[in-house]
Design goal:
The complex is a heterotrimer.
Chain A: H1 2-27, H2 34-44, H3 49-72, H4 80-118, H5 121-127, H6 132-171, H7 175-185, H8 188-214, H9 220-253
Helix pairs in contact in A: 2-6, 3-4, 3-6, 4-6, 4-7, 4-8, 4-9, 6-7, 6-8, 8-9
Chain B: H1 3-33, E1 40-47, E2 58-61, E3 64-74, E4 80-87, E5 99-104, E6 111-116, E7 130-134, H2 139-179, H3 184-217, H4 219-226, H5 229-265, H6 275-310, H7 312-336
Parallel strand pairs in B: 1-7, 2-6, 5-7
Antiparallel strand pairs in B: 1-4, 2-3, 3-4, 5-6
Helix pairs in contact in B: 2-5, 2-6, 3-5, 3-6
Chain C: E1 10-25, E2 28-40, E3 43-48, H1 54-61, E4 69-74, E5 77-78, H2 84-91, E6 94-97, H3 109-120, H4 126-139, H5 155-167, E7 173-177, H6 185-202, E8 205-209, H7 213-219, E9 222-227, E10 230-235, H8 237-240, H9 249-255
Parallel strand pairs in C: 3-8, 3-9, 6-7, 7-8
Antiparallel strand pairs in C: 1-2, 1-4, 4-5, 9-10
Helix pairs in contact in C: 3-4, 3-5
The chains are: A mainly alpha, B alpha/beta, C alpha/beta.
The structure holds adenosine-5'-triphosphate and magnesium ion.
């Protein structure tokens, strides 16, 4: 029984590896589905913007508010902008954006591809002379890989604005001096790390959602499972990746 | 292709453009602010100990940031060589005989390089020059200066103690002087001096009492900072003794007043032994001088305290103290009602 | 009611030739040595119980599944030996109408219909595409739905749109997977007529999978029956049911109780 489970797990892993391999193979093989990529970018990027902006703002505002007391203890509230800057750019913006997107975009991709699979739309696409992998999977993974970083920039910006609003209310810090302190606390490595990790997160969300949907079992409950697993698996992977990236960055920073 | 597609493409384009715009704005702000893109003149400075300074720390000249530390590495002789990247537009103000030292932008803030001095008749630094280095003032030094002040104060107190004993012993001499009649006027002058001294002592006592009071309200912190409770109790003792001195001095004055009255009535006796009195006058001057010294050192201590209070890290602590004091007061008032 | 002999069938031209095909999923053996020929211009009806592998058979023909054993020859090409590009080219000549219609949920009816054209005939002008879309829509009698979404249509309408979408490329072979399942009798008659019209108008050869004997009777030039993974019986409607086989008789009796 257990042996069977382990065997199935390895088969699943092999399938995932093959899926990722196929993605990279199809990625560089013309023809390219530009129109569909744009459509998916619009769906993933633009449609998520309000949600991401709102969460980014709330996270910035609340985080600032919650950090104040412990700095006040030392009379060091003047360090708040630096603290917020580091927290948002190094961790919060990429992570929060990725997790929210895993919930919104990942589940959407899983459910959409899952139901397309169940209702034979993927087969239909295949027999009407279109490569469904390229049309459905590659375009979506490209979209998440490029849009999640951009959403991360937005949410970082809005998060810093949220922090500013709170600091402005409490410490009367001016906009200029706030952003001066914000940018004094971080360096290029931080900015590039933010971009890099959000690209990784975006790719993860896309590929996991597509895999779950594309390989969902036939039947309606397969669709639900695909959506559910896309979220669970991509969130889990995002944390694992974050852990690894932090280790690598620590190595780079020394 | 269709209208909806066009609209989508436009919105997406704007979205992506603004997103990337945010990134670029961040990159340029960062670059501009940290002057990563500005042309740099690289000069060197060698230290025995850089106290944790790292690549990327700021360089200040007259309180203005003019560059960043580009590299930190050991030389063969185990000294630390720093490569300082000075902004091209600022380097002309740094002269070849300017000095560099390690400072910090707060009590436990980031380490910085502080460049100072340099005379205008010496040419500006060029790429590859090595600056002379100084040992910087650090927190430890500030603390030890404070300690020396305290020791001085203890010494002064000791002096006063001895002095007062001398004056006490001198009573006999003055008594003896009463039978003398020659220097009645001198005596008067001396008395005036003594009164003056007494007033001074009063003032110093007041100042010290004031200081002690301050130490009392923020006592535990002072204890922590000075890590020396002995100083505190010494100060207390000194104040008490000073008070003693004052009382003795005023008693002395009264006695002297009586003595002068006596003197007035018996002016007829002209032979006075005033040598001792004269020496007493000298003593009075010494007392006066001592008082001045004491006052000065008290003021210094006051300044130190003030400086500590203004340090931003400790500010919170003092504020908290004040708040607690206010609370206690409130509670008291309530209790009274 | 029985379909009259169609004169345009060319019995010398096998557009599909399946020989000794096996297909299993895990331990489940679905097809066990299937032989089947489809002649040019012929309507072939495949009967069989649910789960006997009818859908699997036509997925093998269109290359969606690969056989474990045996050969599948379609329009002169060996399906299991084609590379991706050749297969894609061959598929343009095969129309596949899915059991579940398989309309793209996220696209309008117009976008659904023009999808195969836009993606395969890139040289076509907008006006030409529009014209083809309108033509097939008219052929299935659903011109008014052009700007609706699939979710707004009934099952029968969707099925017809699905057929229209396969017709738009004017394929040489049509594969209908249960075109009349779950539809009312009048719609069924419409669809049966549509299948016959397509046969005559475009000279297509078709495989029609169905449980519906009325359908089989009206559209089938020849009927085959999938039993236990093999085609054991074939012939016209009357020949097929001229038996006491317990696996066959209920089909007829259920539909036509005297
Ligand atoms: N992709 C697949 N993976 C695993 N098993 C499959 C797959 N496709 C079909 N099967 C199995 O093959 C058998 C035949 O399926 P098929 O869809 O061909 O039946 P059918 O004859 O079309 O039935 P129906 O009339 O209900 O459509 C079923 O038992 C099904 O479970
Ligand atoms: Mg079927």
């Amino acid at each position: 029984m257990a042996l069977d489970k382990i065997k199935r797990m390895f088969i699943e892993l092999a399938n995932i590896a093959r899926f990722v391999g196929r993605f990279f193979k199809e990625l560089f093989n013309p023809p390219f589905e530009f129109k569909e990529i744009i459509r998916q970018c619009y769906e993933v990027g633009w449609k998520s913007l309000p949600l991401i902006s709102l969460t980014g703002f709330v996270v910035g505002f609340v985080f600032t508010n919650q950090s104040r007391p412990s700095l006040q203890e030392f009379g060091a509230t003047s360090w708040l902008p630096a603290l917020i800057s580091i927290a948002i750019i190094r961790a919060l913006a990429p992570l929060v954006t990725a997790l929210i997107s895993a919930g919104k975009v990942g589940s959407n991709i899983g459910a959409e591809l899952g139901s397309m699979n169940v209702t034979e739309q993927i087969d239909a696409m295949e027999v009407s002379g279109t490569n469904p992998f390229k049309f459905l999977v590659v375009s979506r993974v490209i979209a998440t890989t490029f849009m999640i970083p951009i959403l991360t920039f937005y949410s970082a910006f809005v998060g810093l604005l949220g922090g500013f609003l709170n600091i402005n209310q409490n410490e009367n810090t001016s906009f200029l001096s706030y952003f001066y302190e914000v940018f004094d606390a971080v360096d290029f490595l931080d900015l590039f790390a933010m971009g890099f990790r959000s690209i990784i997160f975006g790719f993860t969300i896309g590929i996991v959602g597509c895999y779950q949907g594309y390989h969902s079992s036939k039947g309606t409950e397969g669709v639900g499972r695909a959506a559910n697993w896309s979220v669970v698996m991509s969130m889990f992977l995002i944390f694992v990746e974050e852990l690894l990236i932090v280790q690598i960055l620590q190595g780079l920073r020394v | 292709m269709s209208k909806a597609d066009n609209k989508r493409s436009i919105i997406l384009g704007i979205f992506v453009l603004v997103g990337i715009g945010i990134l670029f704005a961040a990159i340029f702000t960062l670059g501009g602010q940290q002057n990563r893109f500005a042309k740099k003149v690289e000069i060197k400075a060698v230290f025995d100990n850089v106290e944790g300074l790292k690549t990327g720390n700021n360089i200040w000249f007259s309180g203005v940031k003019i560059g960043i530390v580009k590299a930190v590495h050991f030389r063969d002789d185990r000294k630390v060589e720093l490569v300082l990247g000075i902004d091209d537009k600022s380097h002309e103000y740094i002269r070849k005989n300017s000095t560099a030292k390690i400072g910090s932008d707060g009590l436990i803030g980031n380490k910085i390089i502080v460049i100072e001095g340099g005379s205008t008749d010496v040419p500006p630094v060029e790429s590859g020059d090595e600056l002379r280095t100084l040992k910087g003032t650090d927190t430890e030094k500030m603390m030890s200066t404070l300690q020396v002040n305290n020791e001085n104060l203890v010494g002064i107190t000791e002096n006063i103690r001895q002095l007062s004993q001398k004056v006490l012993r001198g009573e006999g001499t003055i008594g003896a002087a009463l039978t003398d009649s020659i220097m009645a006027n001198n005596m008067r002058t001396m008395m005036a001096s003594l009164t003056q001294a007494a007033t001074n002592t009063n003032k110093v006592t007041a100042a010290l009492a004031n200081f002690t009071a301050k130490l009392n309200t923020q006592g535990s912190l002072a204890n922590e900072l000075l890590t020396d409770t002995v100083v505190y109790s010494n100060l207390r003792a000194a104040v008490a003794q000073l008070q003693g001195v004052t009382q003795t001095a005023s008693a002395l004055t009264t006695n002297l007043g009586q003595a002068s009255e006596k003197l007035n009535t018996s002016l007829s006796s002209p032979d006075n032994t005033l040598g001792l009195l004269l020496s007493d006058k000298a003593t009075a001057t010494t007392i006066k001088q001592t008082m001045v010294n004491l006052e000065a050192s008290t003021a210094k201590l006051d300044e130190n305290m003030e400086a500590l209070q203004h340090n931003f890290l400790l500010r919170g602590f003092f504020k908290k103290r004040d708040k607690e004091a206010a609370k206690a007061k409130e509670a008291e008032e309530k209790a009274q009602q | 009611m029985i379909k009259q002999h169609t004169s345009t069938i060319d019995y010398n031209d096998k557009v599909i030739d399946i020989h000794d095909v096996y297909k299993s999923f895990g331990t489940l053996e679905v097809l066990k040595g299937v032989d089947l020929q489809l002649f040019k211009g012929e309507n072939l009806v495949v009967l069989g119980r649910s789960g006997t592998g009818k859908s699997v058979l036509i997925k093998l023909i269109s290359g969606l599944l690969m056989p474990d054993q045996g050969t599948i020859n379609v329009l002169g090409e060996q399906v299991d030996e084609l590379d991706v590009k050749e297969l894609q080219k061959l598929r343009l000549r095969i129309g596949f109408s899915f059991q579940s219609s398989a309309l793209y949920d996220s696209m309008t009816i117009r976008e659904n219909l023009e999808f195969p054209l836009v993606r395969n005939k890139r040289h076509l002008k907008r006006a030409e595409i529009d014209e083809s879309v309108e033509n097939v829509l008219e052929a299935v009698g659903l011109s008014q739905t052009i700007n609706q979404m699939p979710s707004e249509l009934s099952g029968g309408q969707r099925k017809r749109i699905g057929i229209a979408r396969t017709l738009i490329l004017q394929p040489d072979i049509m594969l209908y997977d249960e075109p009349t399942a779950g539809l009312d009798p009048i719609t069924c008659i419409d669809i049966n007529n549509l299948i016959n019209e397509v046969q005559q108008q475009y000279k297509t050869s078709s495989i029609i999978i169905t449980h519906d004997l009325a359908c089989a009777k009206t559209v089938g030039d020849r009927i085959v029956m999938l039993l236990d993974g093999r085609f054991e019986r074939q012939g016209n409607f009357d020949e097929i049911f001229d038996t006491d086989d317990a696996r066959v008789k209920p089909f007829h009796d259920y539909n036509f109780i005297d």
